[in-house]
Write a structure and sequence with these properties.
The protein is an alpha/beta fold and 424 residues long. Helix content is 37%, strand content 15%.
Length: 424
């Protein structure tokens, strides 16, 4: 498509957009009496208008039924997580016995590593990407120390080459091969939070397995952003949060994928909890943990209903729209944003914009990360003051993510005008 940096062109794209009406189903923040341009769905998604009713239903049933709401509520709490299983499986390309929603993201990452990082004298190394999200780094570091190992000699970080901002896929595969005799686990963020790079998870999992290792992914920036086929990609495990692209509220619940070859293995090492115990005998209260032979067997506690209620409402929207349609619009939105940024940069003598996210293709979702050469933190501050909500990451990267569920093409045109005016 031949783009134009005009309001008329942007409005025309919005008129042709079959998903445009979903924008009205979200609360767009208003600051200083002006609706903002919100490009931080990669940090916290906007609130669906259906969230209030979803919470209200559970509050009313709690008031009406008390403990009996577990069985008599409109959405009985006893097995509330099961309402989320089908939509979650579709979202990440999994079978229903391979997914469960529970806990928070880093809690789930630790629980999964209890099962999938079992170092031996021969195999103990972990491969991850440099500049993984800090929580992932801390989880890997402390898991390694828990096993009495030294992170410096155990964790192998793959970095971009000198002068580059993203990691070459072939360098990951080379690192797997070079460490194959000592490698226990490849654990990578499926979409890098800093650069927005999407890693080729299917090929990474295949290479890890060929080396005798397991492959897991943190999909905090992937779920709801890119098309996932975790079962067919033969991924061993993955986890993600629901408060970014999945619009389920600050600190909301996390999703887990465990390939069925593992999820059905009840002898696999794990930490036990009452809600992961065999459903048929759970209320007999007997000693001896007998895990459910699905991903549910990794649960520890019963469902946090209020956060799950919002997540349920959000997942219903994703199921209605479908990831194919969202990804199609996302590609167009992000390409238009790139065009507008470049148009402003080319016309300016004050700044040179360098987009460090990979070019359009399989290694890009909806996030663009830019270096504004000739500008500093002042540019970010000016954008925020003008009502553009973006994200600053040290040392000098502005991250922005036009989310297909609620961002418009006119948002992007208006952003370009504000960007031009914000250059110092």
């Amino acid at each position: 498509m031949q783009f134009e940096n005009t309001q008329l062109f942007a409005k025309d794209l919005d008129r042709q957009d079959p998903l445009a009406h979903y924008r009205s189903q979200f609360h767009i923040p208003v600051i200083n009496d002006k609706q903002v341009i919100y490009f931080t769905g990669n940090s916290l998604g906007l609130q669906p208008k259906s969230a209030k009713e979803a919470i209200q239903i559970e509050l009313e049933d709690w008031a009406k039924w008390g403990v009996e709401g577990h069985f008599h509520g409109r959405n009985p709490w006893f097995a509330y997580h099961e309402f989320l299983t089908g939509p979650t499986a579709k979202l990440v390309g999994a079978k229903e016995n391979e997914v469960v929603v529970m806990n928070g993201l880093t809690v789930n990452l630790h629980l999964l590593m209890v099962s999938f990082y079992q170092p031996t004298k021969e195999r103990f190394k972990i491969i991850c990407e440099e500049k993984a999200f800090p929580s992932d780094q801390y989880a890997l570091e402390t898991q390694v120390r828990h096993h009495g190992l030294d992170p410096a000699s155990t964790i192998v970080e793959i970095a971009p080459r000198e002068g580059e901002h993203t990691i070459r896929h072939e360098d990951i595969i080379t690192a797997i091969e070079e460490n194959r005799d000592e490698l226990a686990l490849v654990m990578i963020g499926g979409v890098n939070y800093y650069s927005g790079q999407v890693f080729r998870m299917k090929e990474i999992a295949k290479a890890a397995h060929a080396a005798g290792a397991l492959a897991g992914f943190d999909l905090a920036h992937g779920a709801g952003n890119i098309k996932l086929d975790l079962h067919d990609w033969d991924v061993d495990f993955a986890c993600w949060c629901s408060y970014k692209y999945l619009n389920s509220g600050p600190g909301s619940v996390s999703g887990v994928f465990i390939h069925e070859r593992h999820s059905s293995n009840t002898s696999l090492n794990r930490f036990g909890g009452w809600w992961g115990h065999d459903k048929e005998t759970r209320f007999q209260m007997k000693p001896g943990f007998q895990p459910i032979a699905t991903a549910e067997g990794w649960q520890l506690s019963n469902a946090p209903v209020f956060s799950m209620a919002i997540h349920k409402a959000s997942l219903e929207m994703f199921e209605e729209v479908g990831m194919d349609a969202l990804c199609k619009k996302s590609k167009l939105l992000t390409s238009y944003l790139e065009f507008v940024i470049n148009a402003v940069g080319e016309a300016s003598e004050k700044a040179n914009f360098e987009i460090i996210t990979p070019e359009e293709g399989i290694e890009r979702g909806c996030q663009l990360s830019i270096l504004a050469h000739g500008q500093g933190r002042d540019l970010f501050d000016n954008l925020m003051a003008a009502g553009v909500i973006t994200d600053w990451r040290e040392p000098n990267v502005i991250r922005m993510a036009p989310v297909p569920m609620y961002n418009s093409f006119e948002d992007i045109y208006n952003f370009g005008q504000i960007l031009k005016a914000s250059l110092t």
